[in-house]
Description:
The protein is of the alpha/beta class. It is built from seven helices and twelve strands. It has helices spanning 36-50, 68-77, 95-109, 129-137, 190-196, 206-209, 247-257; strands spanning 2-7, 9-11, 32-34, 56-62, 81-85, 114-118, 141-145, 147-151, 154-160, 165-171, 174-178, 201-204. A seven-stranded parallel beta sheet has the order 7-11-6-1-4-5-12, with helices on both faces. Strands 8-9-10 form a three-stranded antiparallel beta sheet, with no helix packed on it. The protein is globular and about 75 Å long. The N and C termini lie far apart (56 Å).
Amino acid sequence: MNIVVCVKYVPDATAEQKFEADNTVDRVNVDGLLSELDEYAVEQSLQLKEKTEGAEVTALCIGPEKAADAIRKALQMGADKGVHVSDEAIAGSDAAATSKILAEAVKKIGGVDLVVCGMASTDGGMSVVPAMLAERLGLPQVTFASVIENQGKEFRIRRDGDVATEIIGATAPLVLSVTDQSGEARYPSFKGIMAAKKKPVETWSLADLGVDAGEVGLANAWTAVEQTTARPPRSAGEIVTDEGGSGAAALVDFLAAKKFI
Length: 261
């Protein structure tokens, strides 16, 4: 089974977030890492590999040079090889353009049985790329999986919603996305970290994929951020002094003024 897992390099949520002059997220001068939600996708891909003889996992990532760190993490976890799509024209691409680039990369990899994605990216949270990717590839999609079962190329997933649980089945090739309920991702072992250094990683440009640069990038995005404002510094809290039992009443007044109650 030929498995491609899509991974994304995102800004570290604990780092200071910055924006470029064009109001896009600064992905170069900010510390980044493999998106946590994509770690679940890598884990499920590796579990499928471990129970399928001859299976292979390829980590596919779009992003600047530093995005190779996301691929490296997937390789350390156990993926077999990586593909990094890097091109200056991609900067600012929206979900529609991202899905197009991913689809062309999957086609170039060739012979793919399963494309695995996280449920969303931690820096975007749109949750639409897996569906768009399935549409572009002409494949069935089984998305938001919390439990995955398969017998060969026959897949069944459990999708847990707010009011109901659904069981959905499909036959590979297909696009699969998993939630953070699918199981904790493994940590790279020392052996895995060392082995990752010898695993192949290819770097492709838009030209390598046959994608016109005029179809992607910020100028062709369907949405745009018009303005960004830095978060104001935290102000000192208000101290409520309890004098003769008045503290409770003062606290209630404060909460009411802030419309918390």
